[in-house]
Amino acid sequence: MNKLFTIFGNPVSHSISPLLHNYTIRAFGINACYGRTMLENPKYFRETFLKCGFNGANITVPLKETAFENCDEIYGIANNIKAVNTIINKNGKLIGYNTDASGFYESIKEFKGIKSALILGAGGTAKAIANILKTKEIKATVLNRSEKRIKYFLDNDFEAFSWSNFYPKKYDIIINTTSAGLKDNAFPLEENLLNALIKTSYYCIDVIYNKQTPFLKLAKKQNKPHKDGADMLLYQAVLAFEIFFNYQYKKNDIEKHMKYVFGHLLKI
Ligand code: NDP
């Protein structure tokens, strides 16, 4: 039977998910296709999903919370994050998952012995990362520019600060989840403070991909092991593919095909 998948977002033209999934679908000889769906009005999320007959979907900015609200059942850590990036359609019921969280954890597995983390930023990605770290018994502290988004973290028993009340400590890993550095050359935090935090850390990671951000440049300057968000992107897709096809295909094989796309087809 033909299967149809998509990525929902606004905008969505930039997404590399169709490339990753379609290449892998083809490599396995599956009769399926993965497209793009730009949704301007979140109100029509569920209706669009069902009317188009999608078997599954990924969801990107700004629809992850909308997707969460429109699912009939939520599995796993997505319940804590309250955002969904992967959905399957089970006989007309939408089942939601969050693979950003586990994708992030897969991406830092090479960094050994992490016990504490400082997460810069308090948006959706920070929520996913803070929650997965908690399940792995890594103490996550959140630091955000402004106060509003801190509430979620305090309400969920995380240590969380805004710039105005932050007391720096030593953290094993510094994680940038802000969009500082995405389209500009901004630091996610005042440069001197950031430098001091990096100095006492072991590792640095930025979830922004395809760019050496000013934050990563500082990490490099201090000879700290560091990486961008490309592996996070890769692994969230690998885990979503497993869910789409009910774990019929080996994770290592999915990863191998998707890595090929990263290495050979994409200049990201
Ligand atoms: P949100 O819009 O939900 O949150 C953005 C956060 O960044 C807010 O906490 C905001 O602070 C902070 N911020 C924005 N600009 C600055 C700045 N100049 N200085 C300091 N803080 C700033 O975004 P998301 O969590 O959805 O996404 C964040 C990043 O993660 C994006 O760059 C996105 O591309 C990337 N991403 C990467 C993925 C991957 O697979 N590699 C997956 C998903 C996202 P405030 O509250 O004060 O406004």
Features of the shown structure:
268 residues; alpha/beta; Rossmann fold; six-stranded mixed sheet; six-stranded parallel sheet; binds NADPH dihydro-nicotinamide-adenine-dinucleotide phosphate
Shape: globular
* Protein structure class: alpha/beta
Largest sheet properties: 6 strands, mixed
Number of domains: 2
Specify the CATH homologous superfamily of the largest domain: Leucine Dehydrogenase, chain A, domain 1
Helix content: 25-40%
Distance between the termini: 33 Å
CATH class placement of the largest domain:
Alpha Beta
Tally of individual helices: 11
Mean pLDDT: 96
Give the radius of gyration.
19 Å
Name of the CATH architecture of the largest domain: 3-Layer(aba) Sandwich
Model regions low in confidence, pLDDT < 50 over at least 5 residues: none
Small ligands present = NADPH dihydro-nicotinamide-adenine-dinucleotide phosphate
Describe the structure.
It is a single chain. The longest helix is centred in the C-terminal third of the chain and has 15 residues, at 230-244. α5 (99-107) crosses α6, α5 (99-107) packs across α10 and α10 packs across α11. Helix content is 38%, strand content 21%. The chain is of the alpha/beta class. The strands form two sheets. A six-stranded mixed sheet has the order 2-1-3-5-6-4, sandwiched between helices. It has a six-stranded parallel sheet with strand order 9-8-7-10-11-12, with helices on both faces. The radius of gyration is 19 Å and the shape is globular. The chain has helices spanning 17-27, 45-51, 64-70, 78-81, 99-107, 124-135, 150-155, 191-199, 214-221, 230-244, 251-265; strands spanning 3-9, 32-38, 56-59, 73-74, 86-90, 93-97, 116-120, 139-144, 159-162, 173-176, 203-206, 226-227. It has two domains: 3-99 and 230-265, 3-Layer(aba) Sandwich (Rossmann fold), CATH 3.40.50; 112-224, 3-Layer(aba) Sandwich (Rossmann fold). It binds NADPH dihydro-nicotinamide-adenine-dinucleotide phosphate. NADPH dihydro-nicotinamide-adenine-dinucleotide phosphate binds at residues 61, 100, 121-126, 144-146, 149, 177-180, 182, 186, 188, 207-209, 229, 232-233, 236.
